[in-house]
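Late entry, evening session. Most of the bench is empty. Finally got around to the prediction I had been postponing all week. Sequence below, unchanged from the version circulated by S.P.
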Amino acid sequence: METLAVPMLCGSGSGGVGSGLGVHRPLSRTQSSPASTSLTLPEKTLSLAPQDTSLVYDSQMLKHQCTCGDNSSHPEHAGRIQSIWSRLQERGLRGQCESIRGRKATLEELQSVHTERHVLLYGTNPLNRLKLDNRKLAGILSQRMFVMLPCGGVGVDNDTIWNESHTSTASRMAAGSVVELAFRVAKGELKNGFAVVRPPGHHAETSNPMGFCYFNSVAIAAKQLQHKLSVSKILIVDWDVHHGNGTQEVFYSDPSILYISLHRYDDGNFFPGSGSPDEVGALAGEGFNVNIAWTGGLDPPMGDAEYIAAFRSVVMPIAQEFSPDVVLVSAGFDAAEGNPAPLGGYKVSAKCFSFLTRQLMSLAGGRLVLALEGGHDLTAICDASEACVSALLGIQDPLPEEVLLQKPNANAVHSLQTVIQIQSEQQKYLQCCISSHCNQHMSPLEMILKSE
């Protein structure tokens, strides 16, 4: 198993963060350790010892296309998943995985996250509406609002296209496929898996589609794991470059779901504008919402060093303390190098996504499901998907030592300091770890933080 050196962040006096990573208060048995210690993260035993990594994909999701017929006008198009599926075949990875059949999410499953109105508006097409209560449906459909897009097609907003014949089926297929894969992994029938699905889901709120998203597939999967399999604790990691506003909304007061998002924020000036570090959850869920909100624009862009630092200093320590039963990933690849500035502009490598995947595999007894979200440069999303599936299969492709030791940029350090300070104040996951021997056990990241 790959080990992860988890640095502790120590106060630097008046200019720095006065607290760092320590123990999770509810888990008093856990002791903090010197910053130089290399931790092997514990695994829960899988009862059935499953051996198979699984993939799920269905061609029905290709039919969600703008009626204008011009993919060049739409960054979220069928070629995204088609290219990924072909790449996995070309590299021989599909043959090493078990492919499971996708399925449409039921209306009941959709309503575990979304309102009935939202589900009937966007989860039905002319054919299956014949089976529903026409009186209720007629009233709801009369409220549906569409916009004419510059390309000549139709959308629910300027970005999110609508195809009356195919969008509802594709969206339900994406959600249902993620649910099916998550169920089989959670039950121990499969080891882990990757859902090659579209349209994406993490921007979809309980009653609003947006940002190419209609149904929040990962949130629906988490709800179904809670309701039908009684899964106690679920970690959702969202590394799409855009904040998952929909997922945050759904679980904001739920302490059984730990949501951690790494996203470009730029003080709220990057879409969707949500995801501030001080959005920490509410009521019983306070402290269970963690936003690693990168600020500073693209000067310089965030890359491998910054994402590795975030995992070392925030994601993995908090996740380890939470001790989830299942890990779900909103695996958007628009932080990958190659995506244009308006849609990302960062420079995370495919190897780094592989590294992040391997770290998450050390949690929850390896019960890990990745579901595709964003990412619009075809080469970048194919490279990243290939790297993540390879990691799930146990194929080692380690990052060079110089990358692992590279210092994160100053903007990233500031962003991480902010997150750690805010989360430390919650006293649910992070508490002060200043000790007399801290200075002699300081990692590269700590030294950077101490010098700021």
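Two things to note before I forget:
The two ends are 34 Å apart (CA to CA).
The longest helix spans residues 167-186.
Will write this up properly tomorrow.
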